[in-house]
Amino acid sequence: MDSVLAPGLYIVATPIGNLGDLSPRAAQILLNADIVAVEDSRVTAGLFRHLGAKRPMTPYHDHNAEAVRPGLVARMGREAVALVSDAGTPLISDPGYKLVRDARAAGHAVVTIPGPCAGIAALTLAGLPTDRFLFMGFLPSKQQARGETIAEVAGIRATLVFYESGPRLSGALSALAQGLGDREAAVAREITKKFEECVTGSLAELAARYADAPPKGEIVIVVAPPGEAAPASAEDADAALAEALTRLPVSKAAGEVAKRLGLDRKALYARAMELKG
Questions:
Q1: How far is CA 20 from CA 106, 115, 151, 160, 255, in A?
Q2: pTM (2 d.p.)
Q3: pLDDT given at position 276
């Protein structure tokens, strides 16, 4: 049914796999928006084929956002602009927050139409604590940056949620095991699709499982929070320092290990100098 939408920005969550998960309200917004801002028009065109309709679309993604954002914001004063990502909830590991910010600054209405989100769906499948969780998006691809990112969250008492691709999955799991300890974890993929699976185990077990068989599809890694760990031993500190020194200068290696293991940074710096020598 046609319905005139008030001008403004409409943030519309779309299915992450099963098109039956599109809510009636989301469908109504998409069918009546004046323009739909999309990551990839080919992907969203498939959703409109499912709805049996066509709507005007315009690209909005990381590569063109700065150029096209002012025009979209201007249109919100007189038209209903819907924002979608290729799958799931816009702004969650997708471009969009600056569009929301600028729309609000211009005095336009901003409406959210909630729905599927891969990270939240994976949490429901993993069987890990959900009272506190931290969404981390994609880990950096470079080894040093990835190790530093993992070290930053090693002590946080919350379940961690990461997005990942198939070819990088085993390496990411190995890096997480190295940086966080061999915690319980889950790998969820193809959520809501025909070949949906959620595999659980320790980080090391999961890394080994996928080492020679990178999976296909959209992947979420869910990692349990840290347990009550025993105080780190001298051997633990030496091992952590030796690994950190392979990718960091002495000072940064000592700082990273001090934060991860809860040890004195000055003592670790002195020990790192010994190991380096």
A1: 35, 12, 40, 28, 49
A2: 0.80
A3: 83
